[in-house]
């Protein structure tokens, strides 16, 4: 019986067997050239016709959001329930990499890399702006509550946590665990298609798998380039706010992208251990320092009260907010919730594969708990500290956010910090944190794209990762320089639009993963290695 079980998941395919080795590259003969051509065509078309591209892609994005709002919300709920079930099911005892596998990184370094890759930069961008937007009714309010009321303040924090808590991390957990399991337990290439072997068998190495990997690369590269572009806008806005002599315009944004890309290149050359790991640890140290500085230098008692408000509002409203039917707050939940779910899903190949890459040696239970629960708890404290400080300033009529409202999302963080002691120091730390988060995103993203376009190989030439780092920076720079806001919005709309077809992929991935885990458990029981 054990031999029959073992043979069921055997394949003759070897990672990289379809690769072409030329010009110092080791590239998959289909995925690499097809994605490269599609990326170039997209960038050229967007630069030549930015307004038309934005119009077309906005139409696709809006159609996906308005026509499939129920599908996005129900799917995200399934991912949360599926992930929570894995924690308590018997398959939770399965160890990624086999019963004797040992973790490659300490828990602290592991947590740091999970958080930095998952959404670190987004927390810098939205931690102030999102609660302020919900409280003031900048673009709708949760459940259409009246803006600028105590109820609006409570739902502002609960609604923000809903978008940054269990649901996005469950999406990442499904992809990450699938890739880690099929790579390290079943010996398959580290690429998205491997997760579908229980369903497609050896056909997964053909065109069905090519299409899955191509879609994953496009979603990843566009999502990363968009984040680089919008992050450069936030960093330049912060520099202009901190140093009035700097105009924060296109030249500064271009310089930031070039600088971030250069540092990411250095990180690539140092490898995973000396690059992403070191930068992720620096990230967490700087983020922790900034967090506790704002906590104790800001309205400490108000923030501590907000922690409870955030957690309780999140727990109370998670089910109503997850309901896709009969909602009257369509403006808010289309503009925010459905958009976020599509965005997280389009990012899941990147974040999921990176988490898989650094998680060998963990049990399924430990893996899902760490990926799902710990970031959610940290995010409660983070959002409560920064968002709570901003809401306290508005309620007490302090500063620009109180007098002018949310006028600029990139500036919101710095407008809040202006009303806390040692503004120059805290603002500088915020800018530094944004930039280092960019570097880790660019570096880890290039590692992921490189693995997919190298047919699942994790030891492709360093020059190939360098190529993808430069490509990410070049796309962002070209779109900012050539198309401005229209081009960046088109890129963002393209990434979000990719979320709809990828949602189907992830639902099938859940089924495939469950089949694989059950097979592994039966095999371990037959071998006497699990009870």
Number of helices: 21
Low-confidence stretches: none
Average predicted confidence as pLDDT: 86
What count of domains describes the coordinates? 1
Query: Would you report the number of β strands?
Result: 2
CATH topology name, in short, is: Hydantoin permease
Q: Biggest sheet: strands side by side, in what order?
A: 1-2
CATH architecture: Orthogonal Bundle
Supply Rg. 22 Å
Approximate helicity band? over 70%
CATH class: Mainly Alpha
User: By helix and strand content, what is the structural category?
Assistant: mainly alpha
- From N to C, what is the helix and strand string? HEEHHHHHHHHHHHHHHHHHHHH
Shape: globular
| Sheet of most strands | 2 strands, antiparallel
Q: Tell me the distance between the termini.
A: 16 Å
Strand content: under 5%
List its traits.
single chain, 531 residues, mainly alpha, Hydantoin permease, two-stranded antiparallel sheet, 76% helix
Q: How would you describe this protein?
A:
This protein has 531 residues and is mostly helical. It has a single domain, classed as Orthogonal Bundle (Hydantoin permease), CATH 1.10.4160. The protein is built from 21 helices and 2 strands. The protein has helices at residues 2-8, 31-48, 50-67, 69-88, 107-118, 120-126, 129-136, 150-164, 166-184, 197-200, 207-242, 250-274, 276-297, 300-322, 330-357, 364-395, 399-404, 409-417, 423-453, 462-497, 499-526, and strands spanning 19-22, 25-28. The protein has a two-stranded antiparallel ribbon. A hairpin with a 2-residue loop joins strand 1 and strand 2 (25-28). The protein is globular and about 65 Å long. The two termini are 16 Å apart.
């Amino acid at each position: 019986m054990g031999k029959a079980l073992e043979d069921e998941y055997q394949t003759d395919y070897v990672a990289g067997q379809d690769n072409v080795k030329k010009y110092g590259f080791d590239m998959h003969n289909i995925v690499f050239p097809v994605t490269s051509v599609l990326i170039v065509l997209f960038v050229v078309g967007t630069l030549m016709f930015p307004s038309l591209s934005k119009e077309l892609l906005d139409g696709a994005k809006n159609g996906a959001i308005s026509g499939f709002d129920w599908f996005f919300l129900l799917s995200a709920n399934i991912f949360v329930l599926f992930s929570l079930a894995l924690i308590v099911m018997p398959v939770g005892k399965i160890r990624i990499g086999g019963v004797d596998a040992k973790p490659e990184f300490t828990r602290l370094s592991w947590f740091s890399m999970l958080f930095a890759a998952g959404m670190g930069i987004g927390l810098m961008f939205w931690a102030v702006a999102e609660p302020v937007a919900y409280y003031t009714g900048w673009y709708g309010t949760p459940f259409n509550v009246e803006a600028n009321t105590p109820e609006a303040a409570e739902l502002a924090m609960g609604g923000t946590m809903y978008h940054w808590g269990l649901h996005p991390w469950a999406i990442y957990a499904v992809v990450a665990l699938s890739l880690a399991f099929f790579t390290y337990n079943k010996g398959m290439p580290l690429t998205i298609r491997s997760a579908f072997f229980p369903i497609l068998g050896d056909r997964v190495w053909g065109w069905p798998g090519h299409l899955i990997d191509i879609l994953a690369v496009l979603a990843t590269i566009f999502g990363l380039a968009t984040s680089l572009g919008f992050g450069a806008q936030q960093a330049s806005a912060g520099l202009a706010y901190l140093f009035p002599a700097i105009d924060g315009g296109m030249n500064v944004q271009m310089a930031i992208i070039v600088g971030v890309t250069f540092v990411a290149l250095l990180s690539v050359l140092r490898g995973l251990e000396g690059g992403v790991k070191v930068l992720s640890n620096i990230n967490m140290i700087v983020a922790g320092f900034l967090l506790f500085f704002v906590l104790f230098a800001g309205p400490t008692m108000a923030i501590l009260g907000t922690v409870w408000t955030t957690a309780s509002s999140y727990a109370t409203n998670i089910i109503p907010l997850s309901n896709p039917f009969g909602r009257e707050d369509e403006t808010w939940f289309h503009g925010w919730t459905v958009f976020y779910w599509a965005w997280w899903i389009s990012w899941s190949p990147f974040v999921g594969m990176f988490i898989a890459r650094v998680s060998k040696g963990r049990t399924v239970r430990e893996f899902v708990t760490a990926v799902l629960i710990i970031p959610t708890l940290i995010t409660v404290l983070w959002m409560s500290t920064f968002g709570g400080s901003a809401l306290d300033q508005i309620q007490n009529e302090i500063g620009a956010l109180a007098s002018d409202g949310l006028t600029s999302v990139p500036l919101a963080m710095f407008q809040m910090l202006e009303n806390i002691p040692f503004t120059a120091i805290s603002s500088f730390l915020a800018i530094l944190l944004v930039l280092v988060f960019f570097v880790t995103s660019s570096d880890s993203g290039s590692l992921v794209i490189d693995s997919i376009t190298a047919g699942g190989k994790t030891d492709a030439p360093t020059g190939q990762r360098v190529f993808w780092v430069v490509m990410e920076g070049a796309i962002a720079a070209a779109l900012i320089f050539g198309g401005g806001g229209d081009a960046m919005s088109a890129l963002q709309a393209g990434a979000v639009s990719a979320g709809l077809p990828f949602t189907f992929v992830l639902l099938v991935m859940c089924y495939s993963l469950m089949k694989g885990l059950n097979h592994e458990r039966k095999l371990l029981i037959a071998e006497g290695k699990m009870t």
